[in-house]
TrEMBL record:
<feature type="signal peptide">
    <location>
        <begin position="1"/>
        <end position="19"/>
    </location>
</feature>
<protein>
    <submittedName>
        <fullName>Uncharacterized protein</fullName>
    </submittedName>
</protein>
<keyword id="KW-0732">Signal</keyword>
């Protein structure tokens, strides 16, 4: 029964409040606030509406004996007050009305004698008697739903640009007793959702300028929250997945990228509006980057777009000159120059070997980059440094000037990988034609000081003879493998790398050791595998595909 009465009372309050404006209720409140005395103190109370729903309650405490007074001013929005905690109670020789902020948030601004500012989670109003206390409780309770409704409807921003304009016009200077934050937001001309937030922190006649460059699409809307810091409020923003995508400059000098920033407010109301606008615009911004990604028709078009972003990138004293040449099979040229040295690198790869889900953009210190990686972490990227062949690698990284350029390029890389995966290699011809093609593809391979003299002989339709002579500056070793094509397992035929070498491995069915093997002319134990060397990944892929095509015919 008590629960039903509570629900009915709440409904009554909502209906009663909806029939009144906040101003009319505040007028009732003003007429109900009275001067209250106890044995030591006279308490004068006044209230005014700063803006709809926002109250300023002022109390003057005068010592009856010596006449000295202390003035306390409370500024708060009834939308922040927990309706269920509003009650009157007796506190020794006075009756008070309790107003507690919901979730114990410190959203009540208290100013003492017009100087000392502090944020509190509660305020207590004084009643002349118990009937006055009951009336005050009813009036305060009627203000809560009206104030909530006002707050919800206060900002009627609709478009993305409406939100941007609000931020530009409302993120301004915050002046405190001993400090000042001179703030300014500017919209980027190239990327609509990219903002530059500049703040000069002025204290003790010293000024520190910090500039944050960030994209609203990279901000986590659930991270936007207000935090009281002494006599002011910070609205904090964190990036999605905590990625450090906020470019930070102190006095024009670039610092490491960050994953958060704060905007300063001098009142709870301004922080409330700022949070609402930020959460609204972040949702609208998420499509902006997507719409900025070019719709490419082919791989060449996608690589041309990426090349525009990576051509020349400078971070502090390091210059990066980068470009990608080719199509699905491409060579990446990277030159890194510092005042003391220059490093030239190249990577050769096939985009179909890359993992679309492992393309990622990120930052490291002051650098923005995109990293692409192979499927399964296979070392399929040919790597050359200053014209010296290095071990095959599994990833390569590109440097970018801006986070947005990296995000767009990452999405382009994903599309390029998709297109290359969809491109099929068509091998046509009879079994004899394909065998002859394998024969002509298997040839001499030189890796640094090691040479493999290789040949494939076709004895008849199924018997093959593979010869390989390994030659080094000091010695040589010849190997001969004689095998029947029917004994090779097409499902277990693959190519791989080891250090600087690329090879195709033929495996027998069930790993049976039935391949006749000679070493330097002497017969040795039967084998179950054959390794054929290739000059690069594409040659190995072709040999592998040809054998599979032949074996599956």
């Amino acid at each position: 029964m008590a629960k039903k009465l509570t629900i009915l009372f709440s409904l009554f309050l909502c209906v009663y409040a909806s029939a009144q404006t906040s101003s009319s209720i505040v007028n009732q409140l003003s007429s109900e606030l009275q001067v209250v005395e106890n044995i030591k103190t006279k308490i004068s109370q006044t209230v005014k509406e700063v803006q709809p729903g926002l109250l300023q309650l002022e109390m003057t405490f005068t010592n009856i004996k010596d006449g000295k007074s202390v003035v306390e001013s409370y500024e708060f929005n009834m939308a922040d007050i927990d309706l269920n905690t509003i009650r009157s109670f007796t506190n020794k020789d006075v009756i008070q009305v309790q107003l507690l902020a919901a979730k114990k948030q410190k959203v009540i601004k208290k100013t003492t004698d017009n100087t000392k500012v502090k944020f509190e989670e509660e305020v207590f109003v004084y009643a002349k008697n118990i009937d006055n206390g009951r009336n005050l409780v009813d009036i305060f309770k009627s203000l809560v739903p009206v104030s909530i409704d006002i707050v919800e409807k206060r900002l009627s921003l609709k478009t993305f640009q409406d939100h941007i304009d609000w931020l530009v016009n409302n993120v301004k200077t915050v002046t405190l007793e001993n400090k000042q934050f001179v703030q300014k937001i500017t919209q980027n001309s190239k990327y609509a959702s990219k903002l530059e937030f500049s703040v000069d922190e002025v204290a003790n006649q010293k000024s520190v300028n910090t500039t944050y460059v960030f994209n609203l699409a990279n901000i986590n809307p659930n991270s936007v929250f207000a935090e009281v810091k002494g006599d002011f409020i910070e609205v904090n923003l964190d990036t999605k997945r905590k990625l450090k995508t906020v470019k930070t400059l102190v006095a024009t000098e670039q610092k490491d990228y960050k994953n958060n920033l704060s905007i300063y407010c001098e009142s709870i109301e301004k922080s409330r509006d700022l949070q609402k606008v930020l959460k609204g615009i972040i949702a609208l911004a998420e499509d902006k980057i997507e719409n900025a990604v070019p719709k490419i028709k082919n791989v060449s078009e996608g690589l041309a777009n990426i090349n525009d972003y990576i051509k020349t990138v400078t971070v502090n004293n390091v210059a990066y000159n980068q470009n990608i040449v080719g199509d699905c099979v491409a060579t990446i040229n990277l030159k890194e120059s510092t005042p003391s040295k220059t490093t030239d690198e190249s990577f050769t790869l096939n985009f179909k070997d890359l993992a679309k889900n492992l393309v990622k953009y990120d930052t490291s210190g002051k650098n923005v980059y995109v990293e692409i990686q192979t499927k399964g972490g296979k070392n399929f990227l040919k790597h050359v440094v200053n014209q010296e062949l290095k071990n095959y690698d599994k990833s390569v990284r590109f440097e970018f000037s801006e986070v947005e350029d990296a995000i767009i390029s990452a999405k382009l890389f994903e599309t390029i990988i998709e297109k290359c995966e969809a491109a099929e290699t068509k091998l046509v011809g009879t079994k004899k034609d394909l065998l002859n093609q394998v024969k002509s593809t298997i040839k001499k391979v030189t890796i640094n000081t090691l040479t493999y003299e290789q040949s494939l002989e076709i004895q008849d339709n199924n018997i093959l003879l593979f010869k390989s002579t390994e030659v080094t500056p000091k010695n040589s070793k010849s190997k001969v493998y004689e095998f029947n094509m029917k004994d090779i397992n097409p499902a277990n035929l693959n190519f791989n790398t080891s250090g600087t070498t690329v090879f195709v491995t033929l495996n027998t069915n069930y790993s049976e050791k039935i391949i006749k093997y000679y070493e330097d002319g002497a017969i040795k134990n039967y084998q179950n595998t054959i390794d054929i060397q290739a000059t690069d990944i594409e040659e190995a892929r072709l040999i592998s595909d040809l054998f599979k095509k032949i074996l599956n015919q």
